[in-house]
Amino acid sequence: MDHAMHHGSSSATALLLLLLVVLPALILCVYLFYAYRLRRSPRSRWSGWRTASFSAGILMIMAAMLPPIADWAHRDMRGHMVQHLLLGMFGPLGLVFGAPGILLLRNASREMSRRLMAFLNARPVRVLIHPVTAAVLDIGGMYLLYLTPFYLFSMTHPAAFVFLHLHFVLSGYLFTWSIAGPDPAPRRPGRAMRLAVLFLATAAHGILAKIMYGYGYPRATMSPLSEIEAAAEWMYYGGDAAELVLIFAFFSLCYKHRSALPDSCLPLR
């Protein structure tokens, strides 16, 4: 039984390395190729800052899955929290601000661009990328992980372990994009709605960290209470830092389009 569990754990680790190290590296290569092609074109430009942002996001995700962070996360709750912050908050910030959707549309044919926008405009996709849905998947997933036995379950079941790490990245990206992503999104909710969701999600994230600190969640992890408290503190302050960046990005995006679309932006008073 122990051998089977060890084999399953090794298989899960190998799959995660493929999905969150090899695949991101390939995605980064594709991104850099198309960014370079745009920068070489006399009729088009591409921001070097966006390239740096996307590259940093990819590197943070890869770093979270490689030693020493991955080994630290396996044996220490504080390491898990650093991994969580990189995969679910800071990495997605870099990816979203890199505007991969705009880069894709600028390199795609008109027919492909129309198909991509039609896909984003489909009702199920619009529901998925709505800020409320994204917040529930992202912040709600954290409550499920840390306040229920799912955390311990994920540490002993390879499939759940893989799902957990993928969920960190995908839900973090979706939430960041739904709030302040520069990429186009058909029928995106207004800024008042997105700002309200952002502040509620920020409050919910902080409350979760306080619950973990005050009541020793997640339970039955065999980690000392001091370790759990330190992880909760890192979650609280690290989350605040990431959310502050997202708030700044939201108002920067609002200010950028203020003159063109004055009625769609909250007054900056």
UniProtKB/TrEMBL annotation:
Q: How does it sit in the membrane?
A: Multi-pass membrane protein
Membrane-spanning intervals of the chain: 12-36, 48-70, 82-106, 127-147, 159-180, 192-214, 234-255
The subcellular localization recorded is: Cell membrane
Gene Ontology CC, one term = plasma membrane
Q: Which InterPro entries match?
A: Caa3_assmbl_CtaG-rel (IPR019108)
Query: What's the superkingdom here?
Result: Bacteria
Q: Does the keyword Isomerase apply?
A: no
For this UniProt record, the keywords arranged alphabetically read as follows:
Cell membrane, Membrane, Plasmid, Transmembrane, Transmembrane helix
Q: Which Pfam families match?
A: Caa3_CtaG
Protein name (Swiss-Prot/TrEMBL):
Cytochrome c oxidase assembly protein
Please report the organism this UniProt entry assigns to the protein.
Pantoea piersonii
